[in-house]
Design goal:
Strand content: 15-25%
Structural class: alpha+beta
Strand order of the largest sheet: 2-3-1-6-7
Distance between the termini: 71 Å
Helix content: 40-55%
Number of helices: 6
Length: 195
């Protein structure tokens, strides 16, 4: 008993500091998350993506909602927030099924990194899989909406040696091409890296 009483002055502050450190770590994690969707933000996505790109079947996706400004203008920002939150949940679930993760970059833009096997049918995965899931009807309480997204995908295998910035650029270019053409998704094209 005497030994316990002697250890108390050392143990009590240590327990206090450990508790405080755990509290701060939890606050830091929540600060790195998008409060609306619960998805990670750009900085956390970048760090995690750099590690995940080691996988040979990694693919980077960028998504942008179509007509989102009209949703906000017609139904209000509260409904727009419901759409963003629902799209975030749907994207996150699809990514988890494909060995990946998602982030909200800001506004109505999202990024994801998933594993897509070389033999994967991208049209089935992206048109009938992801795009269909994102555009499932959403009852906001004021209106039933069907969010639509343009998706750009850039597979690591298509750009050997490319880093995250090049893959993101490829996915971004493909996303805007899909948007211009009214398509669900577009693949990033092959790229020869300049030396």
């Amino acid at each position: 008993m005497n030994l316990i009483l002697q250890a108390l002055p050392v143990a009590a502050p240590t327990v206090g500091w450990v508790t405080h450190a755990c509290f701060l770590a939890r606050r830091l994690r929540s600060a790195r998350r998008d409060p609306l969707t619960g998805l990670m933000g750009r900085t956390e996505f970048t760090g995690r993506a750099l590690r995940a790109l080691r996988h040979p079947h990694a693919a980077v996706l960028l998504l942008d909602l179509n007509g989102f400004k009209q949703i906000n203008d017609t139904h209000g920002h509260a409904v727009g927030d419901q759409v963003i939150a629902a799209v975030g949940r749907r994207l996150d679930a699809w990514c988890a099924e494909h060995g990946g993760f998602a982030a909200r970059l800001g506004g109505d833009e999202f990024a994801a990194l998933v594993r897509l096997a070389p033999e994967a049918d991208l049209d089935a995965e992206l048109t009938h899989g992801l795009s269909a899931r994102l555009s499932a009807p959403l009852d906001t309480g004021r209106a039933t909406l069907t969010p639509r997204a343009s998706i750009g995908v850039c597979r690591k295998a298509f750009r050997p040696g490319a880093g995250l910035p090049d893959l993101l650029r490829g996915a971004d270019e493909a996303m805007y091409a899909a948007k211009r053409r009214g398509e669900h998704w577009r693949p990033g094209t092959h790229l020869t890296l300049a030396s």
